[in-house]
Design brief:
The complex is a heterodimer of chains A (about 425) and B (about 110). Chain A is an all-alpha fold and about 425 residues long. Chain A has helices at about 1-10, 20-25, 40-45, 50-55, 60-75, 75-90, 95-120, 125-185, 195-200, 200-240, 250-255, 270-290, 295-305, 305-325, 330-420. In chain A, helix 5 (about 60-75) runs parallel beside helix 7 (about 95-120) and helix 10 (about 200-240) runs parallel beside helix 15. The two termini of chain A are about 50 Å apart. Chain B is an all-alpha fold and about 110 residues long. The radius of gyration of chain B is 17 Å and the shape is globular. The relative contact order of chain B is 0.20. Classes of the chains: A mainly alpha (about 425), B mainly alpha (about 110). Chains A and B meet through helix 1, helix 2, helix 7, helix 8 and helix 15 of A and helix 2, helix 3, helix 4 and helix 5 of B.
Chain lengths: ~425, ~110
């Protein structure tokens, strides 16, 4: 089995065919098309060319051949020695004494084979237990899967709705704020120092609401992740135990029960939310800066590293183009509306651009639960199927082998009878 | 984007199809070689099952190796075919030969 070990250790890629001689040696059969090694064997011991030639010159009693074949087939080494001695000396006494022992040994092995097959059949009750355990696990897993999937769907829908609402509200607040500014300062047209803008209540409100939203969904994702991780641990534990030979009582003790509370769900990559949060904050700052048309170096850099802010820069360009073609009077009102609409569109677009990743994180959590639960359902069930197949095939083979052994024994006994009567 | 609801559980056949080809190759070879030596011997049957159990444990597929070995013992492939597939390492399904009646003392041992 050296090749097998190398194969499994993975340090080389040995030929699996290299196992064939080992398998043949273990089974005491020759490898087809290969000369037998120096180890010899029963066939070599009593099947030499010289011996066969001697038999041609001096016909031997049929019991010799029958005993030789019997010894070969059943691996009875003492009978082999007795046949060899009888051939050499011509005295059958030792052979006739060895034969009953060999027959008895084969009968004993036949009984052992039948016992082993019967013991295998007793494992059928284990198969039934495994099936029942799989049913229980599946019932719990399906309930939890449904709950987790519902919660994941709800989480994704809620964040979409909340972000949409945030974008709409933010746009409205910006519009109202700019309107107030333009009404208060007669000649004012969107010009505002970035530092002043960042101090405005509308910016602070947006930032606060976004942070609150991000924190809330981060908490939800953390909770989902933690609870799914607990479920996964529980299922993995059941899987490990279920696949080792354990008693039914022990298995019941570790199998999850339907009565167990559904704890909840799981979590997500924090980075995605941090990016989302940073992006929105950046958008607020850079978006405001762009609206005033006074972009400081710091604001640009901040916008560039946050996707949301970077996208809003496009609105600055749009606003600039619009300014060039609008008359000052109309421009003022259109500017307010346009700014608000542009901000809302861009903010929504950017927030929605993050959603696939957020949803993918939620799906990854759900997939992790399924990856843990499915083997725990499948493996006890598969093992149950295999236990049944093993029991059935083992019993059938044992019956065939014992019938064949008995036929050989009967034949040999019938050949022995005249010898023992002499 | 809705979260998929399905909890897809593979059955024994699907699990078997996913098993490494080497498991099938080795189980088929054990069955072929043991049957070629003649399956009238309870000792050989015991040895074949013990070898299958040992290899199955090593490969991490104990029950599948036993199942496949028992199938190969019940309807053994030709040893040369089994060894040929073991050499190539290809996934395969052995061509089943007619079942040998081991109860007949003059039945061919196989091979």
């Amino acid at each position: 089995m050296r090749d097998l070990m190398r194969l499994l250790e993975g340090d080389t890629r040995p030929s699996v065919a290299g196992l064939a001689p080992d398998l043949a040696a273990a089974l005491d059969v020759p490898v087809p098309d290969q000369p037998r090694g120096s180890g010899g064997g029963l066939r070599d011991t009593i099947g030499s060319i010289a011996g066969r030639a001697r038999n041609l010159m001096r016909p031997e009693p049929p019991i010799y051949g029958a005993a030789r074949d019997f010894a070969l087939e059943f691996g009875e080494t003492q009978l082999v020695a007795a046949v060899t001695e009888a051939r050499r000396s011509g005295d059958q006494t030792a052979l006739l004494q060895a034969l009953p022992a060999a027959l008895e040994a084969v009968r004993a092995r036949a009984i052992a084979v039948v016992s082993a097959a019967e013991a295998q059949a007793q494992a059928l009750s284990v198969a039934q237990d495994l099936d029942q355990a799989a049913d229980r696990i599946e019932s719990v897993a399906r309930q939890r899967n449904a709950a987790i999937a519902r919660r994941a769907t709800m989480l994704k829908r809620h964040i979409r709705e909340d972000l949409n609402a945030l974008a709409e509200d933010a746009a409205e607040e910006f519009e109202a704020d700019f309107r107030r500014l333009s009404e208060r300062k007669k000649g004012w047209f969107g010009k505002l120092d970035t530092a002043d803008l960042n101090d405005r209540q509308v910016i602070k409100n947006l930032e606060r609401r976004y942070q609150s939203l991000a924190r809330r969904y981060q908490d939800q994702l953390d909770l989902l992740d933690r609870e799914v991780a607990e479920f996964c641990d529980e299922f993995t534990h059941v899987s490990d135990e279920a696949l080792t030979p354990i008693t039914r009582v022990e298995f019941r003790a570790i199998a999850p029960r339907p009565a167990l509370d559904l704890k909840a769900m799981s979590a997500v990559d924090r980075a995605s939310n941090r990016t989302l949060m940073a992006g929105a904050v950046g958008a607020v700052a850079s978006g405001a800066a762009m609206q005033t048309g006074i972009m400081t170096a710091g604001a640009v850099i901040g916008a560039a590293i946050t996707p949301v802010g970077a996208a809003v820069l496009g609105a600055v360009a749009l606003a600039g183009v619009w300014k060039m073609f609008a008359t000052p009077g109309e421009r003022r009102m259109r500017d307010l509306r346009e700014r608000a609409r542009t901000l809302e569109d861009q903010l929504r677009e950017e927030i929605m651009a993050k959603l696939p990743r957020f949803e993918a994180e939620v799906d990854a959590i759900v997939a992790r639960f399924r990856a843990a639960a499915v083997p725990d359902i499948a493996r006890p069930r598969i093992e149950a199927v295999r236990i049944r197949e093993i029991a059935s095939a083992h019993r059938g083979l044992a019956q065939a082998v014992v019938a064949a052994a008995n036929a050989r024994i009967d034949r040999l006994v019938s050949l022995m009878a005249p010898q023992t009567q002499v | 984007m809705d979260t998929p609801q399905e909890l897809l559980v593979p059955d024994a056949a699907q699990d078997e199809a996913r098993a490494a080809p080497v498991v099938r190759c080795l189980a088929g070879t054990i069955g072929a070689l043991a049957a070629a030596g003649g399956l009238a011997s309870p000792k050989r049957l015991e040895t074949a099952l013990a070898v299958a159990a040992s290899i199955g444990e090593t490969l991490g597929e104990p029950s599948l190796t036993r199942v496949l070995t028992l199938r190969a013992l019940s309807a053994p492939p030709a040893p040369r075919e089994a060894l040929g597939l073991l050499e190539t390492g290809r996934d395969h399904t052995f061509r089943r030969r007619p079942r040998v009646d081991h109860a007949r003392p003059d039945a061919p041992a196989g091979g």
